[in-house]
Each structure stands twice: as structure tokens, then as C-alpha cells.
Amino acid sequence: MASHIMRRLARRSVTGILTGDNLGRRFGSAAANSDLIRATLFPGDGIGPEISESVKQVFKVAEVPIEWEEHYVGTDIDPRTQSFLTWESLESVRRNKVGLKGPMATPIGKGHRSLNLTLRKELNLYANVRPCYSLPGYKTKYDDVDLITIRENTEGEYSGLEHQVVRGVVESLKIITRQASLRVAEYAFHYAKTHGRQRVSAIHKANIMQKTDGLFLKCCREVAEKYPDIVYEEVVIDNCCMMLVKNPALFDVLVMPNLYGDIISDLCAGLIGGLGLTPSCNIGEGGIALAEAVHGSAPDIAGKNLANPTALLLSSVSMLRHLDLHEKANAIQDAILNTIAEGKYRTGDLGGRATTAEFTKAICDHL
Ligand SMILES: NC(=O)c1ccc[n+]([C@@H]2O[C@H](COP(=O)([O-])OP(=O)(O)OC[C@H]3O[C@@H](n4cnc5c(N)ncnc54)[C@H](O)[C@@H]3O)[C@@H](O)[C@H]2O)c1
Fold first, then answer.
1. 18-126+274-367 belongs to which homologous superfamily?
2. pTM metric for this prediction
3. Which class is 141-272 in CATH?
4. How far apart are alpha carbons 330 and 145 in whole angstroms?
5. How far apart are the CA of 102 and the centre of ligand 1, in A?
6. Packing angle, helices 326-342 and 2-12, rounded to 10
7. Among 76, 96, 186, 340, which residue carries the largest CB count within 10 Å?
8. Which residues line ligand 1 (CB under 6 A)?
């Protein structure tokens, strides 16, 4: 089974991502000439700096031609972004068009504009692509998970429009637009087509949210008509959760509004061994790709050398594929998967006793 999954991974480049304007073509010659490609790095909060350090070490050993431009979350609110992220940080991503982001903490129910929302909105990161597949050699209940969730990333329940109507009554607006729905649906179908995938499932609750999710589905149907070779289906979110837990092989590519994507992708992470393992990449207008782990800043283990860097490392592999640096991407992906499959060095979340540094060293030794 392990070798079967390995072959499938290699064929599909599951950590691969795609943009309409593939940066790789533009950077291809630079990489071939071994010139350095500049990429933005946000180490982020909590475990972010520790796992970012792992990525930097692995890239160094693998001799990846990337020069990091590091940006930290500030301590004061920048009025231009209304958050602790500075305008210069955002400009760095706009300029480099490619980057890697560690987790960023958001205080619950108060404080500043969420750092993640700021990034998504200011950089128009409209699709979040989260590959989720069984890792060869790491046994969970399921051996054959191989699916991609694609989450609309800019609107829906994350529009940030909340207010008090009267004392004791608050309102939150879920915004769904035709433009954003068509854009993410188009991305999902194009992804399916170019990655040899057969089926796209639109996940919704249009039986209750008839106008908002109804519009989302209408847009997905319109796009589906342009892709007659891809099977299109619609699944209500509650049923989708049950089906995923019962038999994840029922799904291939899933596309959905913002909040559903957040929840479903964490559920999918649970199917394959947890948040420490699942990468993602945010796709923006104009060819921007900002890769990031699905997990948060894990304050409970931050600074203790306990975090699993796999999710961020696999996200960095996505970034390399985006740049068409497939040889480096394959080498790093193989080293990660082989280290986990070998079982000698695993972090605590995978039932092992290795520290972040020991696990990282083992990956470097496999390179
Ligand atoms: N994209 C992001 O930057 C992002 C995503 C989710 C949450 N957050 C933020 O992160 C903070 C903490 O959120 P949370 O606790 O709900 O979720 P979390 O993902 O940080 O942690 C959930 C659980 O998973 C564990 N975990 C997560 N990543 C791990 C890793 N790499 N290795 C080992 N264990 C890992 C944690 O220890 C914790 O037990 C919050 O402020 C939240 O807003 C940020």
C-alpha cells in the first residue's frame, strides 16, 4: 500500500499547486541558471519560528536556490493595513509573488484585525488549496485518503461584518458574490483537469442558506458545464462530514465557501494523522502564491522544541512546485516521507519522542 500511494503521489504531485499565471515559467530560467529566487518568509507566532527554522535548514542542505526575505509580525498597528502586519510586508509578497507563511495568532473576540484575514484580503488570496493524503508508513484508520479541499478565501462568513443590532442581539453578514464564487470554482475545475482528477464536489448548505450558498452552487454549475470530462456533484455539508469519516475515498476535489473549507480541511487533517501533517497554499490574483501550514500557532507547545514541522515543510514543497523547482521539491518531499515512514524520529503528535530539531536533522540526513 505504501509504495502504491508513493507512486500516486509522484504522479499527481499532490503538494503541487497551480495558478493561471504560472510563476515557474517566469522563474524557470533563473532557477536553471542557479540564480537565487527571492521569496517572502513570515515565520509567524507561537511554533512558527521553530518550524520556519526547520524549513530554512532543510532548504540549505537541499541547496534550494531561494533567498528568504523575512518579515515579522509587528508590535504596533500599521494604520495602512489596520493590523500588526506592515504595509512593507504585504509589498514584499506583491513584489516577490511567492512566499511561505508560518501560523499567526488571532485574539478571540477582541483586538486588531486578524493577521490572516489582512493577508487574504489585501493580497486577494482567493483560493486556499489543501491537499490531504495518507502518508505512507504512518498508519491511521484510513490508508487511501487522497483528496484536495479548495476553500474560497476572501468572503462568506469571514467578511468581518459584524455588529450589534440592539443589546443582546448581534448580526454577522455572510457575503457571497458571483465574482468570487466563479473565480474559486474555475480554479477548482482547472486544478482537477490539470492534475488528473476526475470529480469536483461542491459543498454547501443551500437548503437553508438558499440565497448565499444558492448563488455559490449556481456559479459552480456554470463552470462545471465548461468541463464535461469532470464529474460534478453537490453535497450538503453535514452529509459530507459523515461521508468523509465513513469513507474518504468517496471524494476527489472539494470546493466550498470559506467557513466550510476551514472546518472540512481540519476534519480531513484528522483522517491522516493530524494538523502537524497538512500543507496548504493560498492562490492570489496576478500569480501570487503564499504557502502555509493548515494549523495555527499551537501556543500549548510553542518554544518547547516539540512542534512537527512537516505541514510547513510540505507547504514549502508546494511553493517549490509553483516555481517549477520539481527536482528540489521531490527530494525534500521524499526525505520527509521517508523519515516519517522509517519511524525512528517522529514528533510527539505522531506518537514519537523526537524534538523538532531531531526530526529536522533526520530529514536533512535523508536528503
Ligand atoms: N493560518 C493560521 O495562521 C492559523 C490557523 C489556525 C489557527 N490560527 C491561530 O492559532 C492560534 C491557536 O489556534 P488553535 O489552538 O485553535 O489551533 P492550533 O492549530 O494552533 O492547535 C490545535 C492543536 O494542534 C496542535 N498542533 C498544531 N500544529 C501542530 C504541529 N505543527 N505540531 C504538533 N502539534 C500541533 C496544537 O498543539 C494543539 O493541540 C489562534 O490564535 C488561532 O487564531 C492561525
1. Isopropylmalate Dehydrogenase (3.40.718.10)
2. 0.88
3. alpha beta
4. 20
5. 11
6. 160
7. 340
8. 47, 103-106, 116, 275-276, 292, 295-301, 307-308, 311, 349
